[in-house]
Amino acid sequence: MAVAWGLTLAAPALHQLPTSLFFAAVMVTAFYGHLGPGLLATALSSFILEYFFMSPFKNPATGFEETVRVTVFALTAVLINSLHERRRLAEAQRRRLQDQLRQAQKLEAIGRLAGGVAHDFNNFLTVIQGRAQLVLRSLEPRDKSRSDVELIDITAGHARDMVDQLLAFGRNQVLQPKILDLDVVVADMKKILSPLMGEAIMLV
Predict the structure, then answer these.
(1) Shortest CA distance to 77 belongs to which of 42, 47, 32, 44?
(2) By the number of CB atoms within 10 A of the CB, which of 73, 87, 111, 198 ranks highest?
(3) How far apart are CA 155 and CA 175, in angstroms?
(4) Any idea where the domains of the chain sit in the sequence?
(5) How do residues 122-146 score in pLDDT, each as one tens digit?
């Protein structure tokens, strides 16, 4: 604004159209300083135009035409500030949406990768669990190795449940909740963890 004021005072030709340079000052301030500084520049520009260019210095009395000119300048400057602010907010929103889109694309790629790996892993678990069940059918009830084969069957079953969840995630399927018997879950976990912990630790 100081540059606009100085140029308008120094150049007689610009003195006839002072609002041109002040419009430029308001636009630059609104673009770089956003809404608050832009409105401040509008108010100061209106004051300078009113008391230094539209009427004699320090004379508050102005004609109707000059008052209209200053009012139109102020309203136009406020509109410019509002448009700059909306443009800035729209640009920020566009950047946020682009970031969200990139994150969604990353998650989609991870989901596809997890789905592919889980599908192959599920095939392996099907073979393991199927073989374990065949072995269980061939073993006697009191066979010492029966508990180990049962552990393989149970562990493979839990692993398949986890794989099914990964497959549902990769395919964007809705997971269906189901009722769990905690006694059964704890008993199965005890069978899995007991061999890993050794005889020194007892699960109760």
Answers:
(1) 42
(2) 73
(3) 21
(4) 2-95, 108-197
(5) 888 889 989 998 998 888 888 888 8
